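Handout, section B. The chain below has 68 residues.
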Amino acid sequence: MNLVCNYNSDWGGGLDDFICTSRYLFCLGTSCFCWTSRKQETTTQSIAEYEYIDVASTLNQAIWLRNM
């Protein structure tokens, strides 16, 4: 079975406060077992910088899950 991660980040819900919302969902086969949805926790100078930090955090979670 493969560990699959679906990741999404958008500014659609944060037009009033300019805070990005990011989500991820991990599935193994047809069972989804680990997910999150959170607002931006760090201040960055660009959208790209925030997404880089957030994707790195998601990858750390993927590595941890893979090593279980």
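Note. Strands lie at 3-10, 21-28, 31-39. Compare this with the example in section A.
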